Amino acid sequence: MLNKLFLKTLFTLSLVFTLSSAANATLITQDIWLDSSITTEIDYQYIGFITIDTEIAIVDDVFNDGSLLLGTVNAWVDFELFGLNFWTEAESNVALDANPSSFPMFGLFQALFDVNNLAAGLELLQFDVTENTFDFYAFSGLIDTVFGFGDIFDSSGGLYDFGELALGEARLTEVPEPTTLLLFLAAAIGLTTRKKVK
C-alpha cells in the first residue's frame, strides 16, 4: 500500500514538473549602454537595463512557415535609466486616473525579439517615456542590432544628452506560471488528504 502511494506521488510530481517546464515564461534582461555625443571619444557607459516578459508577446510568423517568429511586447517588467525607474503603462494610467492634471508617464514602448532564439536578446527596442521619480526627465531612444540612438530631455523639452545606444548580452530567467504553482499545490494537498483518509 505504501509502494502504491509512493508510485502515485512520483507520477503526480512528474506530471506537474512536465507541465511546469512547458508553461514557464521567460524574462529577457539586457543592459543599456550610451556613447554620449557630447564627448568626442567612443566611450560607452552603462546607463540602465530593460527586462521584458516573452509570455505577453504578440508573435508574428514572418514567412508563414515557423522559420522566423518575431515576438513584440509593448510593456516591460522592469526599466531603469540613470538610476531612475519608469512606471508601466498600467501604473501610469492608475496615476492619471487618481490625478488627471498630472503629466502622463507613458508614451511609446516596443521591444522585438526572435522567438526561436531568445538568447540573442532584443533585436529592437524603441521607447519614449518619462521617469516617475521626479517627473522631470523624458527619455526616448531606438536600439536595433545595426545601430542605436537616444535622446534625453528635461521636462521643458530641453536636450539633456544624446548619443548612440547599445544593448548588452541577454540574460534569460525562467519564471514558473502561477497556474503551474497552483497545480503543484493542489497535487500536494490531494496526496496528503488521500494519505490521511486511508
Uncertain spans: 18-22
Task: Tell me roughly what share of residues is in helical segments.
Answer: 25-40%
- Number-wise, the strands total 12
Q: What composes the largest sheet? A: 12 strands, antiparallel
The value of Rg in angstroms is 22 Å
Number of domains: 2
What proportion of the residues form beta strands (DSSP E)? Answer: 35-45%
What structural category characterises the helix and strand content?
alpha+beta
Distance between the termini: 10 Å
Q: Which word captures the global form?
A: globular
Q: What is the H-and-E element order?
A: HEEEEEEHEEEEEEH
Counting DSSP H or I runs of 4 or more residues, the number of helices is 3
What is the residue-averaged pLDDT?
A: 80
Oligomer: single chain
Describe this structure in words.
The protein is an alpha+beta fold and 198 residues long. It has 2 domains: 46 residues; 150 residues, no CATH class. The protein is 26% helix and 42% strand. The protein contains 3 helices and 12 strands. Strands 1, 2, 3, 4, 5, 6, 7, 8, 9, 10, 11 and 12 form a 12-stranded antiparallel β-sheet that branches. A hairpin with a 4-residue loop joins strand 10 and strand 11. It starts with a helix and ends with a helix. About 3% of the residues have low confidence.
